[in-house]
Amino acid sequence: MPTPTHTLIEAVTLATSASSVTFSSIPQTYGDLVLALNIKPTAALNVRLRVNGDTGTNYNYVVMAGNGTAASSASAASQDFIYLDYTAYTNITASVIQANFIDYSTDKHKSILARASNSTTGVNAQGIRWASAAAITSMEIYAISNQFDVGSTFHLYGIAKAL
Amino acid sequence: MGYQLVETITVGSGGAASIEFTSIPQDGVDLVVKLSSRHDTTSSLTEIRFNSDSTNRSSIRLTGDGSSVFSGSQSNIWARGNRSDATSNTFANSSFYISNYAGSTAKSVSVDGVGENNGTLAYQEIDAGLWNDTSAITAVELFPNSGNFVQYSTASIYKITAD
Asked: CB-based contact (8 Å) between A126 and chain B?
């Protein structure tokens, strides 16, 4: 029997539309975290993330994106949130979003690699830094404009780095 | 729990026109397909289709080829395979993430792929795909859009569970 690589920490499937989902009490027993989202919108929306309830200007990112017509890249520092879907915002079709939180519990700034795919609006890949050495113990995924629709799924996995 | 290998298929001598997984369990949340591929033609496109349906597919891509970057859209879902004129024994690698594959909504797909050709023309690509069909995915087929996979091309399919 192979050792599982991803252990489910928590799964949320929306039975009613909602503007946010929070994973709290994240265990500190893994090496990395993986967030896997399937977002259905009530109407066009962007998906944002904050960790540990931090509303300070501690988020930095660089992104590359394509919308089917043009390719682009951008960066910003000192943001008070991060987009998980950036230009690949959720509209009409469901978005597939994955985010990897590297060394989420160690005493250093946290690196997050995020990928968003929406077949209507485009794709993007982001490198994100949360400028805090605090362990990630919670995260909130929230919608800007409109809501996550019924059936949207939010899965958080832990990845062990040692057998 | 987590990632569970469903099946691995390796192309034998003589090559193969396609790699097909036909016994996909329906008790997972998401599917992941990992592909290492090389073609016997100068086409670098490897397509994916579900339940033998070649219609109802679309995607948006962002591609870099070592010297430029561009974005486009197409009426299929693809990744990259190394071409027959690439350096001997080099293969391209791709990952397909298929969200909510057993559900009754249209299927969103996230694709990441990279090829390498000894420092010359190669591709890195991310794609947002959609199979606009509400059927549960019971079969996944990968195929070059021209020619065959060569020997040692390999694909593995994993299911991700939420228990």
From this structure: no
